[in-house]
Amino acid sequence: MKRVLSGIQPSGQLTLGNYIGAMQNFVKLQNDHECFFMIVDLHAITVPQEPQALREQSEAVAALFIAAGIDPAKANVFLQSHVRAHAELGWLFTTLSYMGELERMTQFKDKSSGKDSVGTGLFVYPTLMAADILIYNADLVPVGDDQRQHLELTRDLAQRFNSRYGDYFTMPETYTPKIGARIMSLDDASKKMSKSNPNPGSYIALLDPPDVIRKKISRATTDSGREVKYNPAEKPEISNLISIYSHCSGLSIEEIEARYEGQGYGGFKKELAEYVVSVIEPLQARYHEIRSSGELHDILRSGAEKAAAIADQTVLDVKERMGFVLPK
Ligand code: TYM
């Protein structure tokens, strides 16, 4: 049994990209491993958030975790801010990191480019993420492709700590889906599907009504060919839709290609939309049940208690190794 940790930001709407890239693996891993899945509210505030919206989104994402199939009896689900040790270890890690390595983070470059003033929180974001992972000595981190660089930094910081203060941290491994680790935008297959894209037609939100989903898929950009063939280099748009199809139907790429041989895109897109709806509709029904049941806060409290027991101990161990006087 391995230890698994991951997190999702409660900023804006969760998308089908988050679901395929990360949440589906959360659900898969919970059966055989000790899992910690959190809503990373402390990361969300690295860009300005309306307090009311942050509260609402944090609860919405927690409910979506459960609705997507995370079972609180198997996995610990909690809010990052409820386990205070994350912020404390995050601070300790900022003192281990270098400006140069944080400046190289592509997520930081993307989020800060063209801005007059860039928050320091956004800059040190990856040190907090490293703390999230290492505080549990996690073995596996299920994420999409865009988080690989942050995981490399996490390993660098773990190594640096271990060589300065003695072996303590486990080297975490990135765990991504074979296909679908990077679900692309529906209007431009050179960009990843993202909740921060100003064009809502570019992404499928997990809470989009079924008819909106059908419309978005029917309008998704495709190349001018007719063949339903998986070839990300030459047919990036149709390949992206095939990845989504595969995840939502459970069919392999070969099975999908065979099913549409010689048929063009029309029928493929219509059936794709129905597969996506067949995944999202029951998820939405469970989401509304959970939100109205009032059980969410109990789940989050119990998840945070179990997480804090481990996280608090890690911070004590780390502080002791670094030379802090511990309370006696
Ligand atoms: P976030 O909130 O941007 O995204 C959450 C997860 O969804 C994946 N993802 C995608 N996967 C495939 N295709 C896409 N288009 C797509 N868009 C998003 C992301 O890779 C991620 O796995 N820094 C993290 C949150 C975080 C975290 C952590 C993750 C904070 N602490 C500790 C793991 C461990 C982030 O911003 O994810």
Summarize the structure.
This protein is mainly alpha-helical and 328 residues long. Helices cover 54% and strands 7% of the residues. The strands form 2 sheets. Strands 1-2-3 form a 3-stranded parallel β-sheet. Strands 4-5 form a two-stranded parallel sheet.
Descriptive account of the structure:
The chain is mainly alpha-helical and 328 residues long. It folds into two domains: 3-176 and 294-322, HUPs (Rossmann fold, 3-Layer(aba) Sandwich), CATH 3.40.50.620; 200-288, Tyrosyl-Transfer RNA Synthetase (Orthogonal Bundle), CATH 1.10.240. Helices cover 54% and strands 7% of the residues. The chain has 13 helices and five strands. The strands form two sheets. The chain has a three-stranded parallel β-sheet with strand order 1-2-3. Strands 4-5 form a two-stranded parallel ribbon. Helix 8 links the parallel strand 4 and strand 5. Helix 7 (120-134) packs across helix 8 (148-165) and helix 9 runs antiparallel to helix 12. The chain is globular. It starts with a strand and ends in a 6-residue tail after the last helix. Bound molecules: tryptophanyl-5'AMP. Tryptophanyl-5'AMP (TYM) binds next to strand 1, helix 1 and helix 7. The site of tryptophanyl-5'AMP has 26 residues, from strand 1, helix 1 and helix 7. It is found in: Cytoplasm. Keywords: Aminoacyl-tRNA synthetase, ATP-binding, Cytoplasm, Ligase, Nucleotide-binding, Protein biosynthesis. It comes from Paenibacillus roseus.
